[in-house]
Amino acid sequence: MGQPIWKGVVFSASLFLSCFFGTLVLLTPLIPVALKWPSVGRRLMDFFLWLWFVLAAAVYELFLGVKIVVHGQPAPPKHSVLILCNHRTRLDWLFLMSYELRCGTLSQYRISLKAQLKSIPGPGWAMQCAGFLFLQRDWKKDQDWISQSLKYFACMGTQPQFLLFPEGTDYCKNGLEKSRKFAEANGLPMYEWVLHPRTTGFVHFINKMKEYKTLDSVLDVTVAYPKNIVHSEAELGKGTAPQEVHFYAQNHLISEMPESTDKLEDWLRNTWREKEVALKKFYQVKGFHVNGENSAVSEEKERSVQRLLWGVVVFWAVFLTVVFYSLIFFPLFKWYCILSALTFVFIGRSYGGVDSLLYSLCD
């Protein structure tokens, strides 16, 4: 859905500035707290990160007009969940914040992403504090890093909502070509709406989360865009946004999941085969809503979400106003922001990032 380009500029600026200054002002003081009192620091960081996640959802829902539709069977409240999702665009992780806000635990939302994003001033620092998984795309290195992350969140007593894209990359021309070559080489069916999933990381997540007792459910989420598809952050920055984002969730208790590696791999492949069929039908009828099934989000819940979105927008508007006022009139605040930024640079060069420092607490 095309919006005036100034809306895209406001969207990008509001998210970047809130993330950049939110990290410097709100998260930096919590690093020593997280090192001295790890569980307390973790919860405080998660609260402020939650405020930003809600803002992100608020900006694209309220400002860019993105409608969120949820059907199916979400996981029960306060479950530790491994979320599996098809990767239709590079923005799926962002729109999944709206799903988590309505049906999950947004403060516990963790995603995996490219390691190159770790050093971006502001957003990269915030994601380090969140414990997002920065992956090298080298399984020998990533395997240990994933294990350290899962162990850390288990030590903190949290109930993580880990997002995993088993396809490994978003649905694009190059990804589709590789998926079809893989299918041809292995005698697998050709897919038109999904890519063939990779099983190694999925099995590792399952085994480690079970080992650390942080897995109650595996949540299969199918995401689809019925009216227009926006593929990248650059498009959002120009004011282009999907009119609607649809999610269909199917929850699987861990007690119902297969035990062996081979059966887990077969389960994932079968799930993606079903997802291919579901998405083909979705794009024919433009929805997952079939046989009179109601939305997974009640009207009362939706009203409370909308109130929260507006409340968080007010919070961040006041926060940024105070920040810019302080930058203009209080020189000491400028020095605080500079020292705060240098703190992240120092930790990155000396320890590999705030996430590495936090994970070391559970070695």
TrEMBL record:
Lineage: Eukaryota, Metazoa, Spiralia, Lophotrochozoa, Mollusca
Keyword vocabulary terms for this entry: Acyltransferase, Membrane, Transferase, Transmembrane, Transmembrane helix
Positions of the Phospholipid/glycerol acyltransferase domain: 81-195
Keyword Ribonucleoprotein: no
Cited CDD domains: LPLAT_LCLAT1-like
One GO term (biological process): phosphatidylinositol acyl-chain remodeling
UniProt xrefs under PROSITE patterns: PROKAR_LIPOPROTEIN
GO cellular component, one term: endoplasmic reticulum
MF annotations from Gene Ontology: acyltransferase activity
One Pfam family cited in the UniProt record for this chain: Acyltransf_C
Family membership noted in the UniProt record: Belongs to the 1-acyl-sn-glycerol-3-phosphate acyltransferase family.
Membrane-spanning ranges: 9-35, 47-70, 308-327
Organism encoding this protein: Littorina saxatilis
Protein name in the entry: Phospholipid/glycerol acyltransferase domain-containing protein
